[in-house]
Amino acid sequence: MTDQVTVKKAVLTAEHFQKLSAVPPEVEWLANITNEKTRRAYKNDVREFSVLMGLKSPAELRTVNRAHVIAWRAQLEARELSATTIRRKLSALSSLFEYLCERNAVAGNPVDGVKRPLANGNEGSTPALSDAQARRLLEVPSEDTLKGMRDRAILATLLYHGLRREELCGLRVKDIQSREGVKHFKVKGKDDKVRYVPLHPLAQRLIEQFLLLAGHGDDLG
Question: Among 40, 110, 124, 189, which residue's beta carbon has the most beta carbons within 10 A?
């Protein structure tokens, strides 16, 4: 008795499979950006760069070098765009070339080494607090209640690590990890990029105090 194997009808035809195999990595990069607002902005930025450089196809991006990027930066500065806007546009181009490097489509990222303008004043950023101001803010929640200790731990995490609100909300106890003997946050940021942020000593103490009081001390690695 021979085994019978039921073969389901293929979802993709051979023609469709070949078309997907031929999708340029430049197109893959854009499709991989999950945030719609970021994807739209990055698409416009790369299109703007391509038009300025006279590039006719995605493949021609692979001929770009640092001189082209510097020329684009100079053109953006001549238009008197804000420092934040220029930095975003350069970041968009850098993100694309990082992906192309990962796919071995280019030998290097031409945006590397191109200086980006510093943000002016407090443009697009939260005004910084001094250490003394941060400590006074941390003293506002009560240290006599579990909720107050929780709020102190949350405030310390925000104040000393520069996390976005979404990044803070995504943190779990398991994301406090030891790397070479130093406690770090494992933070998932935009486009699911992961980075490791060393814990500030005061923040670490407040977090550990709260977890012990909340009965989660054993969860700390």
Answer: 110
**Cβ 99 vs Cβ 117: under 8 Å:** no
**pLDDT tens per residue across span 81-101:** 888 889 889 988 988 888 888
Report the distance separating Cα 122 and Cα 103, nearest Å. Answer: 37
CA atoms within 13 A on the CB side of 177: 12
54 φψ region: left (φ > 0), alpha (ψ -120 to 50), beta (else):
left
pLDDT > 80? residue 169: yes
pTM listed for this prediction: 0.48
- Above 70 in pLDDT, residue 171? yes
Assigned token pair, 188: 């998932």
d(CA 22, CA 13) in angstroms, rounded, equals 14
